[in-house]
Amino acid sequence: MFRVLWAILLIKANAAFAARLLNCPKSNIKFEKIIGLPPINLNREQLLVPLNQNETDAAVTIQCLQNCQKNEKCQSFVLFYDTSDCYWFENDQTFIRNESGMEVDNAAAWFVKVCLQEERGCNKSWVFETVRGATLIGNDTKALPRNMSRSECQQNCLDETDFDCRSVKFRVSSAQNETVGLCTLSNKHQDNEYCTYEEYGDVAFKHKDLRLLNMTKDQCQHQCEVYQAFNCRGFSLDSGKKCILHSEDTKLRGPRILVSKQGATYYEKARCLNITVSCTESYMTIRYQPETNFHGKLYMHGNSENKECFVVGQGKFTMVTLKLQLLTNECGIVKADSPTS
């Protein structure tokens, strides 16, 4: 009985989905990226971008999006990062594939057309990134009072004026009806402001979204910081000055997304830490205000075991203070005298 009811719901949901897109102004047709759903059996005739057997490191994300956008029958597509190919469908396959207990797939990403009115002049190729089965802990800025569809939840986030809505939590009401659920808006996002890049030598990030040729490190980094089509979370430099931009990172996909590759270097945006440094004639004081449950060490490089040169965190929101004597040179601090005239 449950299976029959589920099939009826699927048919109705996909019919409503198609109707929304049919009546949607072209300027409001956006994409939603969905991470973690496994692929299905594919029809080779549904290929969005022609395969190039001689090119093993192609980046086809933008081309797949453009081809689906131009194809009115294309309602969703799946992108395989490992083989650089994508296949389109005439319905929202992610809804059909949203079964409980389904294993997460890290080799593919789904893109679904949605009808959303966006007034902020956003030039992104996809407006929302959805991670099924995951949630952002805390930061529930505004819980909406009634059940609604996922697209309505997203539209409420875009329409919010009391605060800058950066993410939503959508929890389905019941297993029998996964088309509606509870919506919570948040002013937080998994991406924090970044201050620098973490560098990983002799490794490659498996998922490639854009490839640029003949780039230095500084040029590639600049492209990552100014690129508009997606949020660039990191970049890679490969042999022959090939610059690869990534819309994902290890925080989203986990460390297994990195593979060994001689001569390649991966740079990932690193979050800002709330650290201040102050000095007097006798002491240097370093203060760190953790945002998580921090019980690690704050120490001077090369002196992690010297009790005079480190301090241990005491938990979340507890200020960590490391006070170092400047006159003893015990923690590797070297006095630099200014030149005299």
From TrEMBL:
Keywords: Signal. The keyword Signal applies. Residues 1-18 form the signal peptide. InterPro entries: Celegans_DevNeuronal_Protein, Pan_app, ZP_dom. The keyword Signal applies. Residues 24-115, 122-210 form the Apple domain. GO terms for biological process: anatomical structure morphogenesis. Residues 278-341 form the ZP domain. It comes from the Eukaryota. PANTHER family: FI17836P1, FI18240P1-RELATED. This is Apple domain-containing protein. It comes from Dendroctonus ponderosae (Mountain pine beetle).
